[in-house]
Design brief:
alpha/beta, TIM Barrel, 7-stranded parallel β-sheet, two-stranded antiparallel ribbon, 10 helices, binds iron/sulfur cluster
Length: about 300
Amino acid sequence: MYYNTYHDYCRRTFGRRVQKISVNAGFTCPNRDGTKGTGGCAFCNNSTFNPDYCRADVDILRQIDDGILFFKKYNADLFFAYFQAYSNTYGETQEVIGLYRKALSHSRISGLVIGTRPDCLADDLLDELAKLAENHHIVVELGAESCYNDTLSAINRGHTWEDSVEAVNRLNDRNIPVGLHMIMGLPGETREMQLAEAAAISKLPVTFLKLHQLQIVKGSRFAQLYAEQPRQFDLWTLDDYIDFCIDFAERLNPAIVIERFVSQAPREMVVAPFWNVKNFEFVHKLEHRFGERHTYQGRLF
Ligand code: SF4
């Protein structure tokens, strides 16, 4: 295989295919409610990553039932609840842990994937999570987005790269596997700067990585900026991004599982770029190009 895929990781670890079921537990985020800031991160419109079957006003056990039904055609029999929308550790610890326990009480749910910000991890919450992780597959997915503090400041992220590194280490100290989420193509970052992020990530004890090309989505602050000053953005073409992903993977620690290289908001939400490829088509093109280049993840690590 050209890179360390999530599919292979699941086969190695669980012996079968895993399906994540998104749940919206009604969290908000400190970058919207005024604790860290208001208005949120410049790229964010949370409705782009919230599937139709999960709505915060529906009980999470019902959301899980609906999600399992939605994915029935893929014949998975191992399911993780994916706390995806907003910052899913942002709340009073016992209430947050109560939601996790509720999801785990569903007879078909074997683990949790919890998406959050690196600055939303209270010590007592991590201690409780570590206890849950003794008997369940628990992953915390951190939105780091960039290794560069100038970028993080410009996108109004409200935390630093050092916060991300510290969060990874605190989770790792408690034996909780960590995923990082990074955006490629943020304004102000050159291709070389972004490739250098592979080396920075490779030094950390992270298990999973999700890359995501910058998409300008409606309702975000970037959408407004793009309308006024499009030259601030250097958006990826499909072919260029595929070659970039391969360059990045070559520099990445081969032990890190690359869960995805691409994420696509619903068509009606996208301002630019729109590539008109489905995710599986992107993966086919990527693997074909890996083959053409006779290379693989970690070749330059
Ligand atoms: S990306 Fe996450 S942290 Fe930023 S505004 Fe959106 S929900 Fe909040």
